[in-house]
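Reply to dn_fold:

You asked what the input looked like. This is it:
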Amino acid sequence: MPSSGRPGGRPTGGTGPQRPRAGPGVVFAAFTSDDNVISPCVRVVVVSLWRRFPLEAEFAKSVFRSVFQRTRTLLKEYKERDKSNVFIDKRLGEYDSRISAEEKMMQRFALEQQRQHEKRNIYNLNEDEELTHYGQSLADIEKHNDIVDSDSDTEGRGTLSAELTEAHFGGGGLLQKTSQQPGQDEERPRSRKELIEELIAKSKQEKRERQAQREDALELTEKLDRDWREIQSLLTRKAPKSQNRDQKEKPQPDAYDRVVRELGFEMKAQPSNRLKTEEELAKEEQERLQRLEAERVRRMLGKGEGTRKPTHVSADDLHDGFVLDRDDRRLLAYKDGKMNVQEEQSGEASDSGNTDEDSSEGGAEDSGGSDSLWDLERDVQSGEESERPEQEPRPTPGERATGRGQEAREAARTELPYMFAAPESSEELKSLLSGKSMEEQLLVVERIQKCHHPSLAVGNKAKLEKLFGFLLEYVGDLAMDDPPDLRVIDKLVVQLYDLCQMFPGSAGESVKFVLRDAMHEMEGTIEAKGRAAFPGLDVLIYLKIAGMLFPTSDFWHPVVTPALVCMSQLLTKCPVLSLSDVVKGLFVCCVFLDYVSLSQRFIPELINFLLGILYIAAPNKPSQGYTLVHPFRPLGRNSELLLVSDEGDAATWQKRSLSLHWASARRAQTETEANHTRLSCLAVCLALVKRCVLMYGALPAFHDIMRPLRALLMQHLADHSHPHDLQELCRSTLTDMEAQEKHYQPLICEKSKPVPLKLFTPRLVKVLEFGRKQGSSKEEQARRQLVHKHRREFKGAVREIRKDSQFLARVQLSEIMERDRERKRRVKQLFSSLAEQEGEWKALKRKKLKK
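and this is what came back:
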């Protein structure tokens, strides 16, 4: 009979090696040592499984182990998911299962004893023992209550005797023996307090003696000085030459000593008041302008004289600085050989009346002293009266005062106001500025800004933003005048810059609006006529102002970038038909170079326009290495616009800056003026070419870009009819072109040995076992093993995550079922209690009915 490998006599079904049976201890060894964790029913299931199905029992054991592990970890985290507090037992050895309970208690008791001992003795250094010195306690010695006894025996104590101490150290008189005579009683020993008082008294006595000695020495010194001064005159003085020699021998201080001495005498920095904020400065400026405006209005109305307060007069004033308010001199007149007394009296009466009026009107002014402004005016008027002929009547003082008041009112009326209202339209601003000089216009705009600073009122910001647009429009009107007032425009740019710094957003919108309007007008003209002339001087001024108000070195700017596009359109779409067009185009080129001076951006339209200007300044010849593009033509009426054929005009030309007045010239020029303008335009063009050479010299394609310009410059240099200054300018420009180095290398084929193709040899793999993956090297085999291990671990991790999810799902389902069972139990209990109450109520009701 074959041995049965399973309980119940079931045969194993083979003669191979039998699997050893595992006893109950092996099954429970898979769990923790705490057997109380597993319930008895689980134990019965595991034992029954092991007895009937050993392989299934192993699987069940692994399942129970995983469930138990998840119960300890995952289930615990799930139950504590909504809890923020955690209780941690920090007792010694609490989580160490290798230490028994008795060992834990012993270690905790030892640690507690050590802590108590450290706390008790941390500051108490002399608690258990007492420190001594030569048998005496240090606490008693520190009290200093010992009695000095010089007669005591000191041999056994190791101290010095009193005689030895007095012989070598003096002893201070504290250790001296008191002389005792026979028949006298011994003195009592003195206490420490008495000895200290005696020592203090002796020190004070010595101090008084030293002070007395010092005073005696000072008196003797003073007496010696007096005696020396008495006999000093009797001594012979040395020759002054020796003194001079001594002075010459005195070393002179060097430069370092002099600098140190000067630094010592320099004034130190003094603390200053704090810097005021912009709002405070604006408030003070507004108050100042309001005060000045009030004074101007008061002078204009004639109220300034009567409101002056009298100056203070001191009680010690002798009143010797007075000035007569009226002229008391009498005119000598005769009638029929007799003095005219009546006229004199009438004159006196009139003078007295005028004097009263003058005193009533200008009494306040006369109280200011003789050095007032009115006194100076009287002196001037008296000098003028003395020069008048005798037949002219002299004005009375009252009339002079009235004339002075009238003149003051007229001066105040013609004076520029200090307060201005913000203009609401461009016409209102023009009315404020028209008819005034340049300084007055700038003063008006400045006072408008100060009176309406944004920090003074809420609506001032909007007013100043409008003021920027009105000023911009006013600048355009000035540019369109004949002749344009460029000096006023130059000064108004400062005010525009200040407003732009305060409100950059609104200023940018205003400038863009002006440029957009000009470009729309040019595009409309091109659509209607096929071509468009250069715009007026106002648009050119706007382009120049935009470059001064906003940064031009940015890669993209909301104002500067449209301005660059506008200038490029002007240089490419506006044909050159007259000298004014040439001047305008050269001005645009100058503005273009100012824009790109920092960023050094290459502008092809600029190079093309300069090439065309050089072409129309030379006689028409076949092109040699260059090609003209729009807006220039190689042949036509304007192909020789800047050519000067009169050698006399070329000889009288002088190099000077090209004025913008020629851009808006509306009067006809003479032939000589036109030739001079052509030569000036050519000089400006050559200067711009030289500037471009210096700016674009670092470009790799510099020589290719400048090749057409070099050909035209050589052609101008060959023309000897040009003035000497223009020839020198051409020569220097060509020298700068040749001095620039080439920054690129031409493309050539690389000269190198060709690389041969790789020869692929067949790879032979030795097959040891068929059906398995064979690697050609150890590294590849190791890599395959790692890949296989990674896949296996990944699958295991996914499987564990899936099992964790299933475990949590079962736990949640059990919680839901538990809550449902509890709810059903409570509902049944409630129904039963209600049924009992209803039965009792019916029984009570039946009893009542029976009664």
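DSSP finds 28 helices and four strands in the chain.
Hope that clears it up.
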